[in-house]
Amino acid sequence: MNDLASKTSVTPGDDAATAELVTRFRQVTAAIRTEVGRIVVGQDDVVEHLLITLLVGGHCLVTGMPGTAKTLLVRTLADALGLEAGRIQFTPDLMPTDITGTDIIEEDEAGRRVWRFVPGPIFTNVLLADEINRTPPKTQAALLEAMQEYSATVRGTQHLIERPFFVLATQNPLELEGTYPLPEAQLDRFLFNIILDYLPLEDELAVVERFTSDRPPEAVSACTDAAQVLAFQALVRQVPVSREVGRHAVELVRATRPGDPAASDLVRRYVKFGASVRAALSITLAAKARALLKGRYHVTRDDIDALAAPVLRHRVMVNYFAEADGVDVDAVLTDLVTQRLAAA
Domain extents for the chain? Predict the structure, then answer.
């Protein structure tokens, strides 16, 4: 948790303002991790991936079984960021206007009937889309414009959503009853798909002890604000990426496509279609944020490889041969990264 604070290898050049911002970045991100750790036990990698998502201005899908603290994790992070947060509980009867808002007719002071827009819960900084796959695709699609364009169009009028704006969506595995697969177009707009697994025994015991005592954890303190988050997002984009590392990212994404010469045997056999160029953009941006979190002002191949699974697992679709052989997309991606490391 204090790894970032102890690093001294960040060298942002001679720009004093940038150097000061990097120092502030270290302090704030370390404080956020500390605050989240007061409530959430373990899940350090998941917390790091959520931080990366926020730092690049992306959106994150958190997948896990019920009872794995998905909602608690997202809510705790929002509190630590000090941002305005909203929550939508997705249900089968949820309508698109329940998300975006709607126009209503009311009388003005002169007694005339006028239309007035009533914003929906989407107009916030951090939107928790809880159990997003519990609602039909028509309602899921209401998030598409907001996630990509930072706006919502109601009755032909576009309403802008103030930045920073993050959608942190939770979903249960599709094998459970009463769930709807997310459309591919919406999946591609999530930077990460994070798998929230069961905790190790000792961590699970710590959860039981912490939340069954007569002294519940104290409230999380805000460590930053909207203006500073936007400044950190700008800082992330300044982190340099060498052409060699950039090529490595693009080649990795291209290797997920069965028709590409660099595709592995598992990709050719088990993948129906691979990741698009948006995946290359996403993994490069995410690698910049990871480098800063690790105390560096440059991106390495390790940053790219470490983020392959969360960036690609929801963008690569396996075929029926994979399902028949019990091979999931993570196994294909692990094999691909391993082979590329061996060939490097």
Answer: 11-238, 239-344
pTM score, whole prediction:
0.86
85-89: strand order across its sheet: 85-89, 126-130, 166-171, 60-64, 192-196
**Closest by alpha carbon to 132, among 61, 45, 57?**
61
Q: Which fold has domain 11-238?
A: Rossmann fold (3.40.50)
> The tokens of 131 are what?
């159990």
127-156 confidence digits (pLDDT tens) = 989 888 888 888 888 888 888 889 888 888
| Fold held by 239-344 | Helicase, Ruva Protein; domain 3 (1.10.8)
Query: Which of 65, 64, 60, 66 lies closest to 48 in space, CA to CA?
Result: 60
Return the bridge partners of 170, or none: 62
> How many residues would you count in the chain?
344
| Rounded CA Rg of the chain | 21
The answer to whether the peptide bond before residue 164 is cis (omega within 30 degrees of 0) is: yes
Rounded to 5 degrees, φ, ψ at 134 are: -95, 0
